[in-house]
């Protein structure tokens, strides 16, 4: 189903907010799909035991509540394998969000909250 989506990322460590998407997206049961402005496809899946955030061709972030998971992120320095820790999440009809931390060799390198507002059919 075609929807309007507003996706924002909050970098809690740096107190920064980034607008990821404001426009058309697609909702298929527990999966959101949309293109960033530069064309990178994002897919967000809320599954029974895991939340996956994928920037196709760039990164796959795997999140499990109260558990450490392993994720793969491609950066300008190459591919990094990071530990992730899901702090909180929610999946309602109109708002999905995740809050998680990223670790590199046990050092905290990121703390993010991503919110997807789903505004209905376009």
Fold and architecture overview:
It is a single chain. This protein has 122 residues and is mostly beta strands. The chain has one domain: Calycin beta-barrel core domain (Lipocalin, Beta Barrel). 0% of the residues lie in helices and 75% in strands. The chain has a ten-stranded antiparallel β-barrel with strand order 1-2-3-4-5-6-7-8-9-10. The chain is globular and about 40 Å long. The termini are close together.
Key structural traits:
122 residues, mainly beta, Lipocalin, 10-stranded antiparallel β-barrel, 10 strands, 75% strand, globular
Helices, strands, pairings?
Blueprint: E1 2-11, E2 16-28, E3 31-35, E4 41-46, E5 51-55, E6 59-63, E7 68-75, E8 78-91, E9 95-104, E10 107-121
Antiparallel strand pairs: 1-2, 1-10, 2-3, 3-4, 4-5, 5-6, 6-7, 7-8, 8-9, 9-10
- What's the CATH architecture? Beta Barrel
Tell me the CATH superfamily. Calycin beta-barrel core domain
Sheet with the most strands: spatial strand order: 1-2-3-4-5-6-7-8-9-10
| Rg computed from alpha carbons, rounded to a whole number of angstroms | 14 Å
Q: Which residues sit in consecutive blocks of at least 5 with pLDDT less than 50?
A: none
- Tally of structural domains: 1
- Percent of residues in helical segments? under 10%
Q: What is the fold-level CATH name, i.e. the topology?
A: Lipocalin
Distance between the termini: 9 Å
Structural class: mainly beta
| Approximate shape | globular
The succession of helices and strands, N to C, reads EEEEEEEEEE
CATH class: Mainly Beta
Question: Strand-residue fraction?
Answer: over 45%
Total helix count? 0
- Counting DSSP E segments of at least 2 residues, the number of strands comes to 10
